[in-house]
Amino acid sequence: MRGSEYAQLRAFVAVVEHGSFVRAAAHLGMSASALSQTIRQLEERLEVRLLNRTTRSVSPSDAGARLLLRLQPALNEVDAALAGIAQTPGAPPSGRLRINAPRVAAVHYLAPLLGPFLNTYPGVSLDIVTDELPVDVASGGFDLGIRLGESPEDDLIAVELSGHLEMMVVASPAYLEQFGTPHTPHDLSEHQCLSFREASGGSLYPWDFERGGERLAISVNGPLEVTEPEMLTRVVLEGAGIAYLFEHQVREHITSGRLVHLLAEWTPAFPGFYLYYPKQRQTAAALQAFVDFVKKPLRPDS
Question: What superkingdom does the record give (predicted)?
Fold first, then answer.
């Protein structure tokens, strides 16, 4: 592969990652017009349109998405190999890592690690992207991703981030005084339930329950559906309904008495958030440093 061809492929990946010629050009250190010309040359060489362009956004075409799926893992391997060669033995890790995570995981479990990590490895920069939908780490242009549960594909390695988690059904004392207390998951059908939607137009997050081997998935109704889980905490504190939230989101409010924990025997702990990254023959020093940092037994939330 000639150097110009590699540069064209790198430019294509950058545009998809940033969703913008302007942002991708700034990242690559070139002008937007020069980047646009580079992409046109690649499309002409391949005789296929790789990007759908509008005045507001840029996204891969079907052909572009297929190319990215095959291309990204290969480029990750190249980057890892080059980083391994360029890294002076004994020198501190350096480089840039892109991490994809659901917002709740980023705020509560990733954020406490960032300051200590950056202070320890000042040569490493981090790009954190929050997204509620599952993202393919490699084809999405990420070095690492965070997901619920330890069930990685064959080409991914999983590292525990949060430990086991628990969902909690909660309501304010004022709401319960006015509308009564549900005693079983089925009772929720008679209550105002506040729901989290995974993404705009996506499905509602399920309210799952389990007790003594019995498992239930309850479809709830209510006056509010949001894609921002932190909003639910505020609304449930105002007495507007019942919410189904992570324990760490409501722990302090239960302790203070502002919220009441409901149906506790129906919400056992489950595997929490894991950090995922692609298996590579040679792992970049910055990536390995971050993974090792996450594995440390004494973390900020310990």
Answer: Bacteria
Pairing of strands 224-226, 193-196: parallel
Residue 175: what pLDDT? Answer: 98
Looking at domain 1-60, its CATH architecture is Orthogonal Bundle (1.10)
Q: Are 161 and 274 in contact (CB under 8 A)?
A: yes
Q: In the block, which residue shows the tokens 């080059």?
A: 82
| pLDDT (0 to 100) of residue 84 | 59
Distances (CA, A) of 130 to 27, 153, 297: 19, 21, 25
Location of each CATH 3.40.190.10 domain in the chain: 72-164+271-302, 167-266
Q: Which two tokens stand for residue 263?
A: 């149906």
3-state helix, strand, coil in the chain (%, to 5): 40, 25, 35
Residues 6+ apart with CB under 8 A from 119: none
10-residue averages of pLDDT along the chain (302 residues): 76 87 85 90 92 83 88 73 60 87 90 94 92 74 84 77 92 98 96 86 83 90 88 95 94 97 92 86 82 74 46
For residue 211, list its beta bridge partners: 214
pLDDT of residue 91: 73
CATH fold of 72-164+271-302, please? D-Maltodextrin-Binding Protein; domain 2 (3.40.190)
pTM of full prediction above 0.85: no
Task: Write out the two tokens for 268.
Answer: 């056992």
The domain 167-266 is classified under which CATH number: 3.30.420.40, 3.40.190.10, 3.40.50.12780, 3.20.20.70? 3.40.190.10
